[in-house]
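FIELD: query
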Amino acid sequence: MLMVIASWKSMGSNEGRQTNRETRVFGEEGRLDLIFAVYRHHRSAIHWVFGFLFLLVSTFLFVDIAGIAFERIGFTRIEFTGILFLTLVGSFFNVPVKRVVTSRPVVEVSEVRIFWLTYRIPQIVQRQQITVIAVNIGGAFIPVAVSAYLLASHLAIIPLALIGVVVCSLVIHLVARPVEGVGIVTPLFVPPLVAALVSILLFPASPVGAGITAYVSGTLGALIGADLSNLAEIQKLGAPVASIGGAGTFDGIFLTGLIAVLLVTLL
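FIELD: result
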């Protein structure tokens, strides 16, 4: 049987000081078996400044490249900026459409005292849970509106674009997983990659058609395959609000459209 004794030693000044943790392990006979030191490094302000600058530059670079990609499918830079802004702001707003009452098993613990002893007895009871089904503005309404605008502006590509939506919906439904407390979770790069490959196969000689199909099939495919097809599973997660296009799938729908168009542009 081993006993571990830990002692702390402070080195340096109070500000930005480095802490030395010395751990000693003794055997059964009391002799010292092992001594090792663990040093804690305290991040200085310069690390946070460089991290913030890196995040800022990466964001501006991604938005600039995405703006160039959206220009190739018919949007101006101002229109893309407006769509991006409305999508991000709209992600904070949900429109309730339905209330669902479900029951779920909950473990409750009751205490029973007998003389001076206390026994804790767990039991499973059914509790009613009210779940509000809502539609997220930024994650559902705006992507659908943009997709409808693109299809209405290019009527000739609608049949093939619908095929792309069906294929992406099926693939995303297969990889989507409900996670309690989070929502419906999908792998980050699978939906946009599938949308880009399908759009290129459907429109090998039309970059504009491939880009529009990539956005439409990526966003609508993520919305249908992740949220709408798993609506029954969302109700079982026990969350007070189940947002279609929000929570765990907003980043999937939002990034799927952007990354799919970028991949088509690069390929």
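FIELD: remark
The longest helix spans residues 45-71.
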